[in-house]
Design brief:
Elements: E1 22-24, H1 29-39, E2 51-53, H2 78-207
Antiparallel strand pairs: 1-2
Amino acid sequence: MPKECCAVNCSNLCVRGSGLSFYTFPADLDRRNKWIAAVNRKNWYPTELTVICSEHFIDSNNEFAPNYTPTIFQRVDSPMKRKMEAQQKARRSKKIGRTEAEKIEEQQRLEEERKRCEEDERERLLREEERREAEQRKEIEDAKQKRLDEMNRLQQAEETQLEYDELLKKYDDLLLKYNQAVEELEQLRTREAKLNTKVDELQTRIVS
């Protein structure tokens, strides 16, 4: 709860943005007693947390100035004093209510900021997860395509090997037929030579 000025009939609160300065009572006993006398409250003594606002000082900026003592106070008669005190309490309650409302508004703003940060973080994590999934899918597709290309290459190699084996078999068959033909040709030449010899012998006999 914000501190309130200790001066009678003063409802100023030590809150940010008030435009006022608030001072604790001096440690020097002589000056402290002057301040207590200036406040003029019956059976009252300030604590370490008691403050008084700058509206009660003529010169509140220089602690060594002669006027650095609260001298500006509003003195009223008892009926008017009770009325002003009631007004003071009402204003204080209103200020406190406004301060509480500002606190609630600040808490709501911070909560909305926290939710917005959490939502941004969730969206970032979701995008990161989607990116990783896309990369994994691409890696899987690339691996599948690489495997398919390898299988096609092996299949083409197998087909080429089959074609080579078939051609080699045909070559062997042709070579065998060629060797058989050469052998038959040699046999025919041998028979031809024998026949020629017999013809020569017959011709010789005929001539004889």
